[in-house]
């Protein structure tokens, strides 16, 4: 191996290490801060000394209601993922396989709806949900969240379905399947990596959603975890519990990290499956 090749290899490793350190630094600092005592929360050392779990005990104190907030996040994110994935799968299949007028225009309009900033439709949604009595309900968070994740899901799955050869369905229909049976028995199993990847993306987006959940709820028993963390109370009115917020941030992030680590192969397979025909 020549000196030039060695330098390139080392530069490659240094570049990868720099990107990894840049991405993980905020989470590392959040983890370290969560393990400090309240009196050491502004310490700038790289490791907590001594290690303390008082912030984690404070997070799960009954007055914070964090366990209920986690359950609410799971209900909202899970329901949003299931409903959005179901609608996106049928819509994407129709956009990829069926021929009808203005199909490209419709697909463009679908993706264009994701460009609207959340804050621009927040007031109309708040007025509408107040009139129909949806404030402090799960559907007030699920329905708007679906509208924001559906365009990305439809676009992603449409691209994926387009890469699958038409001969698969034609062969199934020659064997006696209807188009619906070919879709259910042939296309859906083969499209599992793309559908799974889309489900992960939808769940992460719904799990981290904050603005809608903050605006549509004012009862602690219905608030999701991001909203509950923002409302953590300290010992006094002017005390901000940074340690508890860091600990809660770690607890909210861990499920997503575990999910991505467990299913990273499927996610990568789904993201790259539609890249080449």
UniProtKB/TrEMBL annotation:
Subcellular location as annotated: Cell membrane
GO cellular component: plasma membrane
Family of the protein in this entry: Belongs to the binding-protein-dependent transport system permease family.
GO biological process: transmembrane transport
Source taxonomy: Bacteria, Bacillati, Actinomycetota, Actinomycetes, Kitasatosporales
The keyword Transmembrane helix is annotated on this UniProt entry: yes
Topology class, membrane: Multi-pass membrane protein
Domain ABC transmembrane type-1: 70-263
Chain segments annotated as transmembrane: 12-31, 69-93, 105-126, 138-161, 182-207, 242-263
Organism of this sequence: Streptomyces aquilus
Keywords: Cell membrane, Membrane, Transmembrane, Transmembrane helix, Transport
Protein name: Carbohydrate ABC transporter permease
PANTHER family per the UniProt record, alphabetical: INNER MEMBRANE ABC TRANSPORTER PERMEASE PROTEIN YCJP (PTHR32243:SF18), MALTOSE TRANSPORT SYSTEM PERMEASE-RELATED (PTHR32243)
Signal sequence, start to end: none
